[in-house]
């Protein structure tokens, strides 16, 4: 039997599948973008309330050609994405240097380590050598649960050849869970405070 | 009398002037780029020697259109420069959050304050509230002299309606002069150390 849409068009199963695939792709990108947006919003909250100064680093691009139209803004006509050499976020909070990456997974029971890249790990190691406060924010989008994991612990997992992911129960043990909210949406500085207290660090302002 | 080049072309005075103007424009850009290059090189030195982790922030761009040629890297075909909301450089050193701008002048007796922009001043104020270590590196290219001026002092000058520039003798008083060298080319962390010592700050690692 041939089905028709109300507008008379014929229903093709393949079209629906293509549309679903596009939705799925958008959802994967969206999932990451939504968490990033929530963090950016939280950073704006922290900045506006004089709590911390934390920004996402701009995507590095190699600019090859710029046009200068008369009476208009310059237009970049050719550029390429460069590979970042650092993590995405950094800033200052109570005299501490803060540095972190934000990652999302759809998984329900573990966080895949392949979400991370060697250059991010190397950068975190370098910052730890300088006594920077480095961590990752891990978001389980299906569970709507968010964890703060300090970089030293992340690096332990990363360098363990037997580990391909961090289990949820391991995070419940080793990480600090963050209650998502409204203002700010991702109150990760509460976890930072807890980490500082646990470390017993009284040297900063 | 009509002069000819060895190749037979006629000498036109206007052409020489245009070439000189182009050279001048390139020199202005070059002057800033050369100092920036020297700082970037110094940051690489500091990173490679496990002394500090300091990077220049990428220029923020608004990406509008990206092409994905088969079997080639993605090409950004349309993008616009965004206004930065922070300073150019930041990072971590001995547990301190470092944040700075680098500026150049051809002047010989004073540094114009119009080299700075309100968003940079605002950013520095915000970082100072969080006990970050903020400063500017001022380079007098004609004199080949470089100064570290802490942001609190810079902001005092900026907010003084009678000041359009900072005099060289004022910098010799209030700033820390940096001896340019080879490895690294701009050893600004020596000035940072001196500033920390002068401040009598024993709270950081």
Structure description:
- Two copies of one chain form a homodimer.
- Chain A has helices at 13-48, 118-129, 151-159, 168-174, 188-199, and strands at residues 53-56, 61-67, 75-81, 89-93, 96-105, 110-112, 133-140, 145-150, 165-167, 176-178.
- With 205 residues, chain A is an alpha+beta fold.
- Chain A has one domain: Trna Endonuclease, Chain: A, domain 1.
- Chain A is globular, with a radius of gyration of 21 Å.
- A six-stranded mixed beta sheet of chain A has the order 1-4-5-7-8-10, with helices on both faces. A two-stranded antiparallel ribbon of chain A has the order 2-3. A two-stranded antiparallel ribbon of chain A has the order 6-9.
- In chain A, a hairpin with a 7-residue loop joins strand 2 and strand 3.
- In chain A, helix 2 crosses helix 3.
- Chain A contains five helices and ten strands, in the order H-E-E-E-E-E-E-H-E-E-H-E-H-E-H.
- The mean pLDDT of chain A is 90.
- Chains A and B meet through strand 3, strand 4, strand 5 and helix 2 of A and strand 3, strand 4, strand 5 and helix 2 of B.
- Chains A, B: InterPro entries: Resolv_RecU, Restrct_endonuc-II-like, tRNA_endonuc-like_dom_sf.
- Chains A, B: Its cofactor is Mg(2+).
- Chains A, B: One of its GO terms (cellular component) is cytoplasm.
